[in-house]
Amino acid sequence: MTALKSPAVLLVVMMVASFLPQSTVAKTRHVVGDASGWSIPPGGATTYATWAAQQTFTVGDTLFFNFTTGLHTVAEVSQPAYGACSSINTLSLNPTGPTTVTLTRPGTHYYICTVVSHCQIGQKLTINVSPVTAATPESTPLSPAPTFELSPTGSPVPLPLSASPAFAAVVPVTFLAVALALFY
Fold first, then answer.
1. Around 109, how many Cα atoms within 13 Å sit in the side-chain half-sphere?
2. Domain limits at 168?
3. Which is it for the CA torsion 83, 50, 66, 31, positive or negative?
4. Which of 16, 33, 43, 114 is 20 to 30 Å apart from 99, CA to CA?
5. Which residue from 113, 46, 50, 52 is spatially nearest to 77, judged by alpha carbons?
């Protein structure tokens, strides 16, 4: 265990960690219905359709259904069951509120409240979930060929090139790792 507290070991670990790819995909927590929560919507079915149209759903995001246990439920259903407001053969059922659903696959997802007549009067939600797209690295232009200038003696002298953006990004992280290792 004392070997792990060695500054040299910590330095190596920090340097390796600084070169690992970093995830830039942020997961979003969507509060279904915003302040109204998951309830019988006063505006009918268009309430949740309007809310969903203002959101962008991606695999890994979560839906937070805010409701009181016993008053409502959340069931994921098939498209035909959604249209018929049928709670037979639900894909998942969450009777306890509030509840969080993690979006694990892309495609269209359908949610209803299974309490009698709630779905028929508008407590249902359709969302389209996009797959996670890997953050594409910015394209780095090829390094320019070195330019030369004639010196007073007539021999070419290469002009200095500016540091590449990748080098400029790695240097501060490396120095941070060294500093942490020294003061640990």
1. 22
2. 2-22+151-183
3. positive
4. 43
5. 113
